[in-house]
Amino acid sequence: MKLEKTYEIVTHLASSNAVVLFSISGCCMCTVAKRLLFSLGVGPTIVELDHHVAGREIQAVLFQLSSNGQHQTVPAIFVGGKFLGGIETLMACHINGTLVPLLKDAGALWL
Ligand SMILES: *[C@@H]1O[C@H](CO)[C@@H](O)[C@H](O)[C@H]1NC(C)=O
């Protein structure tokens, strides 16, 4: 599959769901990211790449998106159609208080 086509799949998933979490089963940091979102009351759309037909291609796209200093391609979190980042960015936003407003803006949290 072409990379542009895969990029479309990713942007479509991201823009049609408030929060999307790309994961691989057995990835610890993916579990940490899921737990954090669940604990905030968010039910993210979870895409397990090892169970997705285009999983490898999607990982290549995520790798391109996260090439600014991130080491792992998963978890990759999209909020409101935009690429937020991986676990480090998610945690940093949680700690500095920008995560909840971001989730509210995206319509992932109502309260
Ligand atoms: C919070 O952390 C994120 C991720 O590091 C950063 O992009 C953002 O600018 C920070 N915001 C504030 C208000 O510190």
Features:
four-stranded mixed beta sheet, 4 strands, Glutaredoxin, 47% helix, alpha+beta, 15% strand, 111 residues, 5 helices
CATH level 4 superfamily:
Glutaredoxin
CATH class: Alpha Beta
Q: How many DSSP H or I helices?
A: 5
Tertiary shape: globular
- Written as H for each helix and E for each strand, in order along the chain, the element string is HEHEHEEHH
What's the CATH topology label? Glutaredoxin
Estimated radius of gyration: 13 Å
Major pleated sheet: 4 strands, mixed
Provide the structure class. Answer: alpha+beta
> In which order are the strands of the major sheet placed?
2-1-3-4
Oligomer: single chain
Helix content bin: 40-55%
Number of domains: 1
Give the second-level CATH assignment, the architecture. 3-Layer(aba) Sandwich
Listed once per kind, the bound small molecules are: 2-acetamido-2-deoxy-beta-D-glucopyranose
What is the number of strand segments?
A: 4
* Mean pLDDT level: 93
Instruction: Give the percentage of residues in beta strands.
Output: 15-25%
Straight-line N-to-C gap:
41 Å
Low-confidence stretches: none
